[in-house]
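Tokens in:
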């Protein structure tokens, strides 16, 4: 019995010891768990502090791209709640750095990026309890190889055939393109190709009847549009340029021409004929007593030729056509110049000449450009590089001229950089369009005119690696080759060839008018280069027949929109194409009825930037 009682006491004691051990273990486990949970919470609070510092740096960099460039001491931010953020700039340790404006890597910082090193602290009773380091890399998303950026609204408007509009870096190695507006962006009736790029807006994006694979994001941070001091560029360069005459317009192409003043016409031997009003048959040259007698008809083969009345008739082709027939004689290739400072005046005069009376209708034989410009200087083309014509062209415009093997297409070539002191128009003897109330409708009254294509004849200006600087340029001859236009006024130019690579810089706006080449039909119109305007950029069609051609843009387009709500259509644009004033970058063709169908994919979060 006694043995049994002893065994029970021992068992009870052992059980008590086991219970004590289990209780102690549970207490230890609970304590450790609480300790771990406390440390995890402390660490989470420290991470929060570090992330707050990263966000602070992001905010500063978004508002000032150069923030942190000169900093050598840490930025300490007391967040309250026993939390503290330290953005490390002390060069004695691995520190933050700003390379957002650099195009090459600096240490561990990639180009166009900023590296932020931030220490987050959690304190207890004023002493550090938990510490965490975070490293963040911010990369500029406005440094796309080929951006299209605007400080104002962007509108891309296609036609009823839904043309393709392609943006990329080049044809052989396409690079992604970002189209961004610091305001609103809208695209209608277009197939937009961005080479794996995307659309973005600091406000909202509207897509109507577009391809459904377009990626976009709304509500992004505004993009910083660079400021280029164009006036200084012009001032620095103009002394090395060939100066053009003030307020002069030039027409290159084909003409019927007879000097308005027959008394000063050159004869084949270079002699001057002088006229004696008292004797109509007298004709003499003071330097040549053997000068032939005066012939009262400057051209006896032309029944319309009055020796007291010259004529200048620009023609839209190298030969007579039904719409624009010859009047007096054969056509002469060459260039005519006259004083003019306003394109509106010029196009109204040219349109009136073309339609009143109509070129191919009754009374067309009475058309005469001298009725609009009393002094016209015409020089007939001569292909000899040493000819008086080529010397004149070089002295006047720093250009040469040649005809191609077809004998009808003409190329003007820049031989030097040009400076425009006032206003210059370089135009071709093209057909003139007449604005209608709608496509195929009745003509607008009073008449509104715009330049159309030549008829099966191409005239182009080869920039030949030269640039045009200065004041107002109206370029109605399509540019080709490589070069640039840098102006402190709005630049208006026509583009109808694909062999082009231009730098276009304007202190005001750039208005490009594209149209199909009159001698080479194609499926698309191309532009290669950079377009920068401190105000607005417009890309519009110049011809009703090419309104829905595909458009391919290889390069960069930047617009600051320094003056809001002042966007205006170029007088070179075909009508009834109009644009409202609230656009900063506008690309459009002739628009018919729009189909309301919103497409596109918002594949990127609105907060991403």
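Residues out:
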């Amino acid at each position: 019995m006694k043995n049994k009682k002893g065994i029970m006491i021992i068992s009870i004691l052992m059980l008590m010891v086991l219970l004590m051990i289990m209780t102690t273990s549970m207490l230890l486990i609970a304590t450790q768990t609480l300790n771990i949970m406390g440390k995890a919470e402390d660490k989470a609070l420290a991470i929060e502090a570090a992330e707050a510092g990263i966000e602070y740096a992001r905010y500063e960099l978004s508002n000032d791209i150069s923030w942190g460039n000169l900093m050598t001491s840490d930025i300490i931010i007391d967040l309250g709640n026993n939390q503290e953020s330290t953005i490390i700039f002390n060069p004695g340790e691995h520190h933050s750095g700003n390379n957002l404006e650099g195009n090459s890597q600096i240490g561990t910082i990639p180009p166009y990026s900023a590296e932020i090193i931030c220490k987050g602290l959690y304190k207890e009773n004023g002493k550090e309890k938990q510490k965490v380091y975070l490293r963040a890399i911010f990369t500029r998303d406005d440094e796309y190889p080929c951006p299209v950026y605007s400080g104002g609204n962007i509108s891309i408007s296609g036609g009823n055939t839904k043309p393709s509009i392609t943006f990329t870096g080049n044809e052989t190695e396409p690079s992604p393109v970002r189209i961004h507006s610091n305001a609103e962006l809208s695209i209608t009736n277009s197939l937009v190709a961005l080479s794996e790029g995307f659309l973005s807006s600091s406000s909202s994006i509207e897509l109507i009847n577009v391809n459904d694979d377009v990626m976009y994001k709304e509500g992004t941070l505004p993009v910083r549009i660079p400021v280029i001091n164009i006036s200084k560029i012009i001032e620095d360069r103009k002394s090395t340029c060939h100066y053009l005459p003030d307020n002069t317009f030039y027409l290159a192409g084909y003409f019927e021409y007879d000097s308005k003043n027959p008394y000063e016409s050159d004869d084949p031997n270079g002699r001057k004929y002088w006229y004696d009003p008292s004797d109509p048959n007298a004709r003499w040259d003071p330097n040549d007593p053997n000068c032939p007698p005066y012939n009262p008809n400057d051209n006896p083969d032309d029944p319309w030729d009055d020796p007291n009345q010259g004529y200048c008739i620009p023609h839209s082709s190298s030969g007579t056509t039904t719409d624009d027939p010859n009047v007096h004689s054969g056509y002469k290739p060459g260039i005519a110049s006259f004083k003019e400072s306003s394109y509106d005046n010029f196009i109204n005069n040219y349109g009136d000449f073309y339609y009143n009376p109509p070129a191919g209708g009754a009374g067309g034989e009475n058309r005469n450009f001298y009725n609009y410009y009393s002094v016209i200087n015409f020089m007939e083309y001569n292909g000899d590089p040493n000819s008086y014509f080529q010397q004149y062209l070089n002295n006047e415009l720093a250009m040469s001229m040649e005809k191609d093997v077809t004998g009808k297409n003409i190329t003007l070539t820049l031989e030097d950089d040009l400076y425009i002191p006032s206003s210059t128009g370089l135009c071709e003897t093209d057909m003139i369009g007449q604005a209608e109330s709608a496509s195929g409708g009745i003509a607008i009254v009073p008449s509104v005119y715009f330049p159309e294509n030549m008829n099966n004849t191409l005239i182009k200006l080869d920039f030949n690696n030269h640039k045009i600087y200065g004041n107002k340029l109206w370029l109605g001859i399509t540019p080709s080759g490589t070069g640039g236009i840098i102006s402190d006024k709005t630049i208006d130019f026509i583009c109808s060839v694909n062999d082009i690579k231009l730098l276009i810089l304007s202190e005001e706006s750039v208005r490009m008018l594209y149209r199909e080449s009159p001698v080479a039909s194609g499926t698309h119109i191309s532009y290669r280069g950079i377009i920068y305007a401190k105000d607005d950029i417009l890309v519009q069609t110049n011809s009703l027949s090419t309104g829905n051609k595909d458009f391919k843009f290889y390069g960069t387009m930047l617009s600051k929109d320094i003056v809001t709500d002042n966007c205006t259509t170029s007088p070179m644009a075909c009508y009834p194409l109009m644009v409202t004033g609230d656009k900063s970058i506008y690309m459009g063709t002739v628009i018919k009825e729009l189909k309301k169908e919103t497409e596109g994919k918002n594949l990127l979060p609105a907060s991403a930037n």
